[in-house]
Design goal:
Helix content is 62%, strand content 13%. It has 291 residues and is of the alpha+beta class.
Amino acid sequence: MIQSMTGYGKCVVAYNGKKIHAEVKSLNSKSLDITARIAPIYREKEMEMRQIMQQKLERGKVDFVLWVEKDDAALASPINMALVSAYKQQIEQMQQTLGLPAPEDWYATLLRLPDVFTHTEMEVLSDEEWAEARKAVEGAVDELVAFRQQEGLALAKKFQEKIDNIATLLASIEPFEQGRTEKIRQRILDALEQNIGVDYDKNRLEQEMIYYIEKLDISEEKQRLTNHLRYFIETMKDGHGQGKKLGFIAQEMGREINTTGSKSNQAEMQNIVVRMKDELEQIKEQVLNVM
């Protein structure tokens, strides 16, 4: 069944005192266009993340975010123990050299010194953490795909409804079409008798009327439109990746409906054509969201 290009997915994975959040959303687009905002520690894996999305999403304007939420323990500024120890040794040496008393409160003295709370270590992405982060990425993408499939079912139901409506409207033209030929013939004859009032070549008139009536015949348009309606439904059932093809079929349906309208010389038939165009426009609007 078809899939929508619109969707949203989110996944959260816990690892070593932090939560790794992955969010991805998509809108319709002619191709795959990925915008990624990634926490610094995971940027080295950006290409791998893009490959995951390319394999599963195929088309759409995709906005991807990967960020980290740390718990209170992880947010606490670490104390640089080596630096504190070095400060203490220097103060004790200063005591001995200058004969100064020891500080009354070692904690208060040492913790006020520069860079005691400065974390000098660089975060390094381990294989274990990346494995968890990858789970978050894949989980968010899988949720987005599931969302797209659900939206695709809703679109398919809507398309089926609109196609059925067009087929019903097309069938409703037939009663007006049946008596149209005789009405055209009689209207021309009445006009000739009232306005001309002279003899005319009836054989030639018959040929001209046949030519004129054939130009107004919509049998071929009806048959082609019926084929397009059936082909649209068959294409929907072929699976995802049919969005562009469905758009082309909708264009062909529009051509047949327009030609039918141009050949309809009765108000009732033209009203039906307008209603068919309205149904088709709703299909064209929604088919842009089909992957």
